[in-house]
Amino acid sequence: MYSIIVFLPLLGALIAGFFGRWIGARGAGILTSAFLAVSAVLSIWALYSVGLNAHEPHMERIEVLRWVTSGALDVYWALRIDTLTVVMLVVVTFVSGLVHIYSIGYMSHDPHQQRFFSYLSLFTFAMLMLVTSDNFLQLFFGWEGVGLASYLLIGFWYKKPSACAAAIKAFIVNRVGDFGFALGIFAIFFVFGAIDFNTVFGTASEQVGQTFNFLGYEVDVLTTICLLLFMGAMGKSAQFFLHTWLPDAMEGPTPVSALIHAATMVTAGVFLVARCSPLFELSETALWVVTIVGATTAFFAATVGLVQNDIKRVIAYSTCSQLGYMFAALGLGAYGVAIFHLFTHAFFKALLFLGSGSVIHAMSDEQDMRKMGGLFPHLKITWAMMLIGTIALTGVGIPGLFGTAGFYSKDAIIEASYAAHSGAGSFAFWMTVLAALMTSFYSWRLMFMTFHGKSRASKEVMSHVHESPNVMLVPLYLLAAGALLAGIVFAPYFIGHDETHFWASSLFRSESNHIVHDMHEVPLWVKWSATVMMLVGFVLAWVMYIRNPALPKRLAEQHVLLYRFLLNKWYFDEIYDFLLVRPAKWLGRFLWKKGDGWLIDGFGPDGVAARVIDVTNRVVKLQTGYVFHYAFVMLIGVAALITYFMFSGIGGTH
Amino acid sequence: MQSPFHSADLTTASPELLLAGGAMALLMFGVFRGKDATGPVNVLSIGLLIAAGLAVLFSSSGTVTAFADGFVVDGFARFMKILTLIGSTGAIILSLHVMRVERMNRFEYPILILLATLGMLMMISANDMISLYMGLELQSLALYVVAALNRDSVRSSEAGLKYFVLGALSSGMLLYGASLVYGFTGTTSFPQIAAAINHGETGLGLVFGLVFIISGLAFKISAVPFHMWTPDVYEGAPTPVTAFFAAAPKVAAMAMFIRVVVGAFPNITADWQQIIVFISIASMVLGAFAAIGQTNIKRLMAYSSIGHMGFALVGLAAGTEDGVRGVIVYLAIYLVMTLGTFACILAMRGRNGAVENISDLAGLARNNPMMAFLLAMLMFSLAGIPPLAGFFAKFYVFLAAIEAGLYVLAVIGVLASVVGAYYYVRIVKIMYFDEPAEEFEPMPVSLKAVLAVSGVLTIAFFVYPGPLVAAAGSAASSLF
Question: In this complex, which of A616, A636, A646 lies closest to B225 when CB atoms are compared?
């Protein structure tokens, strides 16, 4: 059954990719969607049987084939099935299936739909490979597979230069993280002599306190490994310093943004850390770093989200910020909480993206919110769906009673960070609370700017505005249901009283880690803080964009420096351009022109070739055609040989 | 003094006697038959060469001397004679078509080749300075005449004349060296010269003699600096004659070279080794560099043959049995490749007659893909690119040189072959990537046959190298 879940998308990708010409655009869409639907249904069944209805802790290992055997390295291709895996299976196949269906409508005017669906299914397969992996090599395979698919899909419209640039940027920034990830895997093999999860996690506790020597420093083994792995996670999950590719990735088609850059691939880093919880749990330093980076990202991305004007970029920064929340929770040891937020976030963020895709579709590919407004009467269903997404994201709910998905998962993170009672914990607490305020503000800002107020679009665009077809709306309904209900239904299992039984052995917490228990005991004001922030954000947005639409402009003029700082995303791109891109280009140009062109070619191939021609020209001139010259050369030859023997004395004197 | 003639001597020299008698009979036949004698004479000449080859093959094995030690037949001689006869036969076959269409169809040509071949067989079996000179002059005089065969062409006459003048000079040197050696050792017989040197009869005078003898021999194999005649004669002589020059005489002269230095001077190897290293390096380097500047394919083949003789000398410079085996293998493969290449060159005929420029080959791959492929393969083989036969030829001689400790020579040789590869591969490039030039006339069957045999042998050698290498090994061992 698990093999079917994993390999159906691959089959779909191969059929759509290689036989797309025969089955046609519509055929490719329907076929891949159907395969994904089967996978999704099976995944939900798997979640039920492994997670919700398991009588004893469930861990299964299905061998597919023996993959690599080289010296001490012996790697099997196997599917590791436990609660963490099946949760990810559900997220990936469910969202991916809906995105496939949605794309049938969204991409209906595109001439290359077969290629699109093939990539989309290929991505899904790679992502499934990643979450079912049984060892680090297989994980890395899936990791790079999703990276490749992401590259292909961001650059799907390859005739658009900005799309190509964004694709390359995503690829290169991820290389930085993958470099660390690969080093981490090497280090694991070096230390443990194996790379399969069972061996590594089983013997991890023996390595506590072990050090190795690096350039004269004694470095803790586990901390090093965890930080290297986290570097990979930072790249893939667009955390602070390595986040720059994610907003640019919005150049891809919107369904891609929903699937890859909101719901699944970017959460691979979160999955990685959760999967490696037996390692991270043993290194306090690593956990501290994870918390700080996560909380900083949550805050930073939210500030940038405040002032962006591109509808997809706002959601992209929102994603970045929410991923920061997840890492903050991971760093505090609340792995279940992080995965829970990952789970709920997949629903409402995919919903927001697909909803905005519906808006963009209606607005004839316009993405700038300054040219929208007043769409509510035309797009009532989309508006309702976006509204559900927004309240789920901002966490609307009444503590202790009822709430949307984000209300359970996001607020749990805020509570957990308070409950940690550590330096990093309180930093994370204040950062996430402030980020909650800003999240609410920019989410409502998006709603108001897009759907309410006076329309700022041209007449021609407005006359074409239409509600999306059902093939696009049905996925929205299903996601909306998830966004509303995922929290209340699953909270008891993921973070509530059934938590230990649910996660079983798939997540590891040390004896001293009681955070999931403690977070239910926090003071009341902490529980209310997030809700209050959500309300404040809503009111602020209402005042600024409905009540007094001139206010934002005035504010921006008063605080022009701050505004520009945020608008330009803290100048990260410019700093990287100055520090890394330009020196690298200069170095490349230098090595190319001077190093290769002048030095190596000049003195190597070109130089030698030129000297050969010189010699040739001289030698050819010797051939004069005069017999006496020829005879002269012969005699000179004899004379030279005889002279040589006279002076060397060989023959005469030995 | 023993009597100069025994009846057994005649049996030993039966292939030579066969050629001599046959050549004279054919000459009579041609003279009396008149103009239309050429066809039969050609066929009969080929038959005669084959008969001589069979006579060589079925002569008694082991080392036999005759004519008062002046003539020796051993494994080495038999092998080289077979190669020479193959070369001569190939040359006549190559000439059949061209001579007819160029109106040079004279019955004297095959007969002159027969006489030259007779001289070559004598050279190979010579065991005495006198018999060596006799064979050498017989061969040379025949070659001078065939070089000028096309009497109406100024270039052909000039080629013959130049060859004659310089050949006379080199003969003089050889004779002078032989007389010096005679003066210092008191004998002209190779085994006795060797014995005399072994008794301590060495001196600067003897080495001078050696230098002059080697100079004379080097002229025949066109090694630098005695090569100057080669490009002019190759270019000037009619192309079938050039094909003949490039093949059989080179093999015979190299065999004679080996016989002299190994047979007569085995105890002063260090001395002649230095001379051979020098002319070997000079030939390889000059052959490689000068060929690059050529536009005429016959001149290019001249420098190519100069270079190849340099490579073959690498094996001789080693002075060991393995080295000589390497030379023999090299010559056999060189012969095959050269005949194939000249088959292609002879097929370069447009509507207005023969063309000789390299640029005329442009785009041959599109006009005649089969010929282009085979020629490209021969070029790669001549350049020494594995897995073709030419690579193994170089491999054996370099291996011998390295085993003999001649590292510098081997390294220079390899570098020279890299430079040399340029002009061979350039021909391939011209054939495959340049805009097609004028189309050639279809290839006559005789040329096709030679090219096909050559191509198959060049490719197939690496599959089944055993017989040739083993035969070469036993031939070499008969000298030591």
Answer: A636
Q: Do A646 and B204 touch (CB under 8 A)?
A: yes
CA distance A651 to B18: 43
Contact A107, A255 (CB under 8 A): yes
Tell me A68's DSSP state: E
DSSP conformation letters of B369-398: HHHHHHHHHHHHHHHT-TTSHHHHHHHHHH
Measured distance CA(A225)–CA(A220) in Å, rounded: 9
Structure tokens at A152: 């292909």
pLDDT confidence bin for A56, thresholds 50/70/90 = low
Amino acid in the structure at residue A458: S
Name the percent of chain A lying above pLDDT 70.
98
**Which of these ranges, A82-91, A463-472, B224-233, B324-333, has the smallest mean pLDDT?**
A463-472
Q: Search chain B and give the residue with CA nearest A631.
A: B166
pTM of the shown model: 0.65
Distance between CA atoms of residues B289 and B274, nearest Å? 23
Q: Does A546 touch chain B (CB under 8 A)?
A: no
Residue A57, pLDDT > 70, answer: no
Instruction: Give tens-digit pLDDT for A378-435.
Output: 888 999 999 999 999 988 887 766 788 888 888 889 989 998 888 888 999 999 999 9
Q: CA of A592 to nearest chain B CA: how many angstroms apart?
A: 26
CB atoms within 10 A of CB A261: 29
- Single out the residue of B120, B84, B113, B371 nearest to residue B240, CA to CA: B113
Q: Which residue has the tokens 């194999």?
A: B221
Mean pLDDT of A201-217: 82
Whether A641 contacts chain B with CB within 8 A: yes
* Contact residues on chain A for B173, CB-CB shorter than 8 A: 634, 638
**What is the structure's pLDDT at A219?**
83
Give backbone dihedrals phi and psi of B72, rounded to 5 degrees, phi first: -130, 140
* Alpha-carbon distance A605 to nearest alpha carbon in chain B (angstroms): 12
Q: Tokens at residue B402, please?
A: 């390295």
Q: Which of B208, B228, B270 sits opposite A650 (nearest CB)?
A: B270
Dump the DSSP string for A608-647: HHHHHHHHHHHHHHH----HHHHHHHHHHHHHHHHHHHHH
| pLDDT per position as a tens digit, B341-362 | 999 999 998 888 888 999 999 9
Q: Is A497 helix (H, G, I), strand (E, B) or coil?
A: coil
In angstroms, the CA A576 to CA B156 distance is 76
- Cβ <8 Å between B278 and A627: no
Q: From CA B235, how far away is CA A325, in angstroms rounded?
A: 86
Structure tokens belonging to residue A567: 């608008």
Q: What is the DSSP string of B458-469?
A: HHHTTTS-HHHH
Contacts of B338 (CB under 8 A, 6+ apart): B243, B246, B247, B301, B305
Judged by a CB distance cut-off of 8 A, whether residue A551 touches chain B is no
Work out whether the CA dihedral A621, A625, A629, A630 comes out positive or negative: positive
Helices (H) and strands (E) in chain B, counts: 21, 4
Which tokens belong to B154? 């100024």
Residue of B202 and B77 predicted with greater confidence: B77
pLDDT at position A260 over 90: no
Burial label, B347 (beta-carbon count in 10 A; 0-12, 13-18, 19+): buried
Chain A residue with CA closest to B215: the answer is A638
The length of chain B, given as a count of residues: 480
- Given its phi and psi angles, is residue A63 left (phi above 0), alpha (psi -120 to 50 degrees) or beta? beta
A623 contacts B162? CB cut-off 8 A:
no
Distance separating alpha carbons of residues B319 and A452, to the nearest angstrom: 100
Task: Give CA–CA dist A43/A91, Å, rounded.
Answer: 9
- Asked if A592 is an interface residue toward chain B (Cβ–Cβ < 8 A), one would say no
Q: Is A612 on the interface with B (CB under 8 A)?
A: yes
Residues of chain B neighbouring A610 (CB-CB closer than 8 A): none
